Amino acid sequence: MTQKSEAVPETSPIPYGRQHITEADIAAVVETLQSDFLTQGPKVEAFERAFADYVGAKYAVAVSNGTAALHLCAMALGVNEETRVITTPITFVASANCIRYCGGTVDFADIDSATALLDIERVREKLESKPKGYYSGLIPVDFAGNPLNLEKFRKLADEYGLWIIEDACHAPGGYFYDSHGNKQICGNGQYADLSIFSFHPVKHIATGEGGMITTNNELLYQKLLKLRTHGITRNQELMEENHGGWYMEMQELGYNYRIPDMLCALGISQLHRADAGLARRKGIAKVYDEAFSDIAGVETLQTNKVAIDESGDTGHAYHLYVILVQNRKGLYDFLRERNIFAQVHYIPAHTMPYYRKLGFKKGDYPEAEKYYAECLSLPIYPSLTQQEQEYIIEKVKEFV
Ligand SMILES: *Cc1c(COP(=O)(O)O)cnc(C)c1O
């Protein structure tokens, strides 16, 4: 066992992820503060357009956070008490909770141990074990930034008449190659009905709080716009009556899930640097890969095969860099004492007290639980310095 270290840490605290704010970002926010709009101004649409273009989707709807994005998706797809949905236990709980917000039933399928992604074969078994129509949808997650093979998920979903919400919070800028060799960018609307993103500070693009939904489906797009703002429309073509210039209609029960203009200005500015940030993340991941390739006792997750091309270029977006070690708690504490704040992603959702109360129990998804026992996310973010990364690698090696 490791001893409690009395040594003064050799570095200032290194978190597992952090935002990167530049002078240009600050200027963009200040400019909006001095404009006529703090919220619901031109920056919202501009951010939506820029983000839709970035991922190659037709439509984008900016919202107050990633969880709100998930909730609105579930509402737009008509999730209710009759709805049953399958997601992965290795995700942030919001991926599952959005179904519960609408009264629906959450089910899980186990992960593929090599990638920690939702295992499509386990999903297929679940679907086959019930009559058609039993399940309504799937919420797969591009976990850690590792892109799912959504083409395969789409095929399966179509066999069973299911919709797909892609939780792409970890994967802005990620991509995989479809069976025709075409690049498919996460969130491009090609295979998923809806995709969602988060702009929390640890994510690639940070606005403090913020989220985005992308889709190629115009009907869903129109629903989302309405649900984001109380279920109200001002679009004359969609209204049942019209009493004059002031008139608007609340047509269903929506929420205030809007994102302010200030934050969209920040988002647009951050989006300009998204490719550079992504390249830096890939660079950091490569250094970790090489450092741990010959270290007994440190395993790494595999990149989905469909995300790698012949040149070795990767579509992995590296929100997280996960290693697997036997004594995970030991390593976590050892690194913490040395000012390296590694993190664990994730505690399997089905083992949370809330989901246990709904009938799930430990042992239900053994691959997810085995993964959880060993996983540790090492720091990865664009402003992580080479020196800091060397220090992290040295300390991990020292421990194992
Ligand atoms: C961050 C995250 C969310 C939630 O996003 P918020 O903006 O924090 O609400 C949902 N799913 C995944 C996989 C996430 O990483």
Summarize the helices and strands and which ones pair or pack.
Blueprint: H1 23-33, H2 42-55, E1 59-63, H3 66-76, E2 84-87, H4 94-101, E3 105-108, H5 120-128, E4 137-139, H6 150-160, E5 163-167, E6 175-177, E7 183-185, E8 194-198, E9 211-215, H7 218-228, E10 232-233, E11 249-250, H8 261-272, H9 274-292, E12 299-300, E13 321-324, H10 328-337, H11 353-357, H12 366-374, E14 375-378, H13 386-399
Parallel strand pairs: 2-3, 2-4, 4-5, 5-8
Antiparallel strand pairs: 1-9, 6-7, 8-9, 10-11, 12-13, 13-14
Bound molecules: pyridoxal-5'-phosphate.
Pyridoxal-5'-phosphate binds at residues 65-67, 91-92, 94-95, 141, 167, 169-170, 198, 200, 211.
Assembly category: single chain
Derived from helix and strand composition plus strand pairing, the structural class reads alpha/beta
Q: Which consecutive residue ranges, at least 5 long each, have pLDDT under 50?
A: 1-5
- Rounded average pLDDT: 96
Q: What percent strand?
A: 5-15%
CATH topology of the largest domain: Aspartate Aminotransferase, domain 2
The DSSP helix count reads 13
Question: Distance between the terminal alpha carbons, to the nearest Å?
Answer: 11 Å
Largest sheet: 7 strands, mixed
> Any idea how many domains?
2
Biggest sheet, spatial arrangement of strands? 1-9-8-5-4-2-3
Principal-axes shape call = globular
Q: Which series of helices and strands comes N to C?
A: HHEHEHEHEHEEEEEHEEHHEEHHHEH
